[in-house]
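Standup notes, structure subgroup. Blocker cleared on the adenosine-5'-triphosphate input:
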Amino acid sequence: MSQETQKSTQAEKNAHMEKIVSLCKRRGFIFQSAELYGGLNGCWDYGPLGAELKRNLKDYWWRVNIQERDDIVGLDGSILTHQEVLKASGHVGGFSDPMVDCKACKARFRADNLDTMQCKEKPSCKPGEGPKCELTEPREFNLMFQTRMGASSDDNDPASIAYLRPETAQSIFVQYKNVVDSSRVKVPFGIAQIGKSFRNEINPRNYTFRSREFEQMEIEYFCRPEDGMRLTDEWLELRLRFYENIGIPREKLHILDVPDGERAFYSKKTYDIEYEFPFGIQELEGVAYRTDYDLGVHQKASGRPLEYFDEVTKEKFLPHVVEPSAGCDRTVLALLCEAFEEETVTDDKGKEEIRTVLRFHPRMAPVKCGIFPLLKNKPELVEKAKAVRDTLRPFMNVFYDEGGAIGRRYRRQDEIGTPYGVTIDFDTLGEGDGELKDTVTLRERDTMKQERIAIGDLLSFLLEKLR
Ligand code: ATP
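Run returned:
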């Protein structure tokens, strides 16, 4: 591909991304945090639809990993973290990125990302390449947010230091013994957690992709040392299947077998699962074989034994760990990028128009079904439509809409990815063809095909599709 073509394809991808960002704001998926006050860099608020989308993702992850398996249990650890935990894990001393300052424009950059950044003064140049750029030597910048706990009389009392956790994993390692002692888990088994993590990223960027506050979905899968490598490969496969099951096709996913020298020093094997975002191929999840590093360091630092006793073989050993660690916000972003489409359609009068549609998998869609009385000024239609809404809503998120032409109402739902719409019309009331009494029109978002379905069959039909 020529350089010019490459540039124009990237320009198209950037324009595509801008449309997604704009839709997300306009329809209430994602807002900049504290936008009213100029915005808090690297932080995002999920609006009504974004909150539903994210919840569907987390619920499905929890369901397949915990509810539908015998060998994984859940945990919900605290965000505020004891400094000794993060000293032992190596985060206090080493969780940092290399940073450079530009003495000319005072901007700060991640030293290992300069290729993808722009000079503040001359955006056509990379940092360091502009006429006035003057970069310092790289130095390490610790990414953890530190805070002080309690009303200590001395503000500088080192004992009052605590951290916002930089990953959910550490509370799993620290509670591993309590879980073993209180549940009936037997190696191999996993502990799973979904929750917020915080990293003071030097350059938050690419919309929500690199944020300072984000959510992780992590599993620490404890196993016998000899099974670690095999289980890493098995987890990779399971995680790829997960993405397919939420609507991210395998061909858009890339597997990076992280080479020696680029993995964390304790990891014997790491796969990064990457997705083709419009801004580049970037990591969604890491599947890492962490050996017994974490339990080992916590055992040593706490002075408390963390070995596992195998009742069958009568052996005592420190389990090894395989960790599939996924980013919730990055997956939501991938879902949005994958779902967004503008297509040209022809309306009833033969006129061409652009239909914006989010083709979410029904199990991820924030709203599952739109419910529309054909006319809002016919009380019988409205009453019947509201009755259908009330039947469905204990089971799923539905949206009742009586405003505007029916075509416009369909389009509004297409734009937020609602997979189904039902219209209550005069046939439903038995005023047309009597045989159609108590049936509704069911419209499918992707094909825009419409069929009649009995109201009594609607719930089971939808539940089957959304499961
Ligand atoms: P990166 O190299 O992109 O900084 P990482 O390798 O440091 O990511 P991990 O420490 O392996 O990330 O964290 C596991 C997952 O948590 C990542 O795959 C990603 O999905 C998510 N994650 C990590 N950092 C961020 C962030 N700043 N914003 C959003 N999600 C993040």
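Discussed briefly. The two ends are 43 Å apart (CA to CA).
Next: hand off to the docking folks.
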